Amino acid sequence: MERLLVLVRHGQSEWNLKNLFTGWKDVDLTDKGVAEAISAGKKLKDEGLRFDACYTSALKRAQRTLDLMLAELGQNDLPITRDQALNERDYGDLVGLNKDDAREKWGDEQVHVWRRSYDVPPPGGESLKDTAARVLPYFKEHILPRVLGGERILVSAHGNSLRALIMDLEKMSGEEIVKRELGTGVPMIYRLNEDASVAEYRDLKG
């Protein structure tokens, strides 16, 4: 039994490029982001990976990344579940602000705390802890049982919703996971043991 789970952060978005806080704002991929998604699909195909079902967020940058990967895999007919439980962290009052402008307004230290602490939310938004409280129950109810049952599942989501999953899979602390950098369009391949512990992990960078 394979118990395969592949996580992919969406390709570069228009607001990633502009250095803006994005959160739940529904922005599209850049040309580079499209290329990253296509490349991710090719890497998965080169690995000989096939999937039984897919999950993604309610935001088009993740959905489009998934569609482009599936096109490369020749698996456009796979069942896709879209749910806002997998959405990016909500940055609240920071959404749409340039990160440099935010630093000028609130100071480097405060913005760093909002971005890189585990449990301090920005004004009107979610901390990573809040995001995990939304993502993990969904993962454990809908996705993990399918993986443990032998299905091969592909998830296209966001930096912070995926950090929440990785934190749980790899049994990391909140302080450890906030330091984990996730590249755009980089497949992360997990093979799980029957108790949901990680049997094997590798990513397809480069």
Automatic annotation (TrEMBL):
Transition state stabilizer (site feature) positions: 158
Top-tier EC class: isomerase
A GO BP annotation: gluconeogenesis
Residues that coordinate or bind substrate: 9-16, 22-23, 61, 88-91, 99, 115-116, 159-160
Keyword Isomerase: yes
InterPro entries found in the cross-reference section: His_Pase_superF_clade-1, His_PPase_superfam, PG/BPGM_mutase_AS, Phosphogly_mut1
EC id: 5.4.2.11
UniProt pathway annotation: Carbohydrate degradation; glycolysis; pyruvate from D-glyceraldehyde 3-phosphate: step 3/5
Residues passing through the membrane, by range: none
Subunit annotation: Homodimer.
Role according to the record: Catalyzes the interconversion of 2-phosphoglycerate and 3-phosphoglycerate.
Protein name: 2,3-bisphosphoglycerate-dependent phosphoglycerate mutase
The organism of origin for this protein: Rhodobium orientis
